[in-house]
Design brief:
With about 220 residues, the protein is of the alpha+beta class. The chain has one helix spanning about 1-80; strands spanning about 95, 100-105, 110-115, 120, 125-130, 135-140, 145-155, 155-165, 175, 180-185, 200-205, 210. The strands form two sheets. Strands 1, 4, 5, 6, 7, 8, 9, 10, 11 and 12 form a ten-stranded antiparallel beta sheet that branches. Strands 2-3 form a two-stranded antiparallel sheet. A hairpin with a 4-residue loop joins strand 2 and strand 3 (about 110-115). It is globular. Mean pLDDT is about 75; it is low at about 10-20, about 25-35 and about 35-75. Bound molecules: zinc ion.
Length: about 220
């Protein structure tokens, strides 16, 4: 029975081909070629569009990436905090600390008062050096404080060197000094005479007296 069914199918195919004929085969072949031609034409027409896309994307990506990277670098540089560290202006022991939140007794003035700077004990004539690079803003002689030098370090930061026995001849207002430059010699001021020879050293930030010990990294007790 199965063989009989197969024979029937082959008979049907033969009859279909015979009924369509050679002309029908040519027609089918023509349709196939036409379809192939359309597919080729569509692929050809779409090819230039695909070729243009890579030309756009590479040109846009590099133009945006380099402009973003310098922006980040510039903003990063502006955020860099310059360390405000200082070196000891004179070698010696701290004999009086920075005190502004309470009163301490001043032997010389015989009264209770604050102490905006620190006193660094030393010998008369010991060299006093700029704690940090900057510009000499004040160079004066005061009856009570003795010779005084004020150096402006920029960014609202200033240092005061009071009770100097003498100011170096080469130092005058407007001079630019490097850290460690000798600006004068230590002495005994009238205002703090009872404390002996020392340097009265102050650090000011935005017109507010600071604790110099927070800036002096090289002080060794
Ligand atoms: Zn003092």
């Amino acid at each position: 029975m199965k063989l009989g069914q197969l024979k029937d199918k082959t008979k049907r195919k033969k009859t279909i081909i015979s009924t369509v004929g050679k002309q029908g085969i040519y027609a089918v072949a023509f349709v196939c070629l036409a379809v192939a031609g359309i597919v080729l034409a569509v692929s050809m027409s779409s090819a230039p569009q695909d070729a243009e896309l890579p030309q756009i994307t590479p040109s846009t990506i590099p133009s945006t990436v380099p402009t973003q990277q310098p922006d980040k670098d510039v903003s990063g540089n502006t955020n860099v905090v310059i360390p405000e560290t200082m070196q000891m202006p004179v070698n010696g022991e701290i004999t009086k600390e920075h005190v502004i939140d309470r009163l301490i007794y001043d032997e010389t003035m015989q009264q209770w008062c604050t102490h905006s700077g620190i006193d660094i004990a030393c010998n008369e004539g010991d060299p006093v050096k700029a704690a940090m690079s900057g510009t000499v803003e004040v160079c004066k002689s005061d009856v009570m404080q003795g010779n005084v030098v004020i150096i402006n370090h920029g960014n609202g930061l200033k240092t005061v060197y009071a009770g100097l026995e003498a100011v170096d001849d080469s130092i005058k207002a407007g001079d630019t000094v490097a850290a460690g430059t000798e600006i004068g010699t230590a002495g005994i001021s009238v205002q703090e005479m009872a404390d002996g020879a020392h340097l009265h050293f102050e650090v000011w930030k935005n017109n507010t007296a600071q604790d110099p010990m927070e800036y002096l990294e090289d002080y060794i007790k």
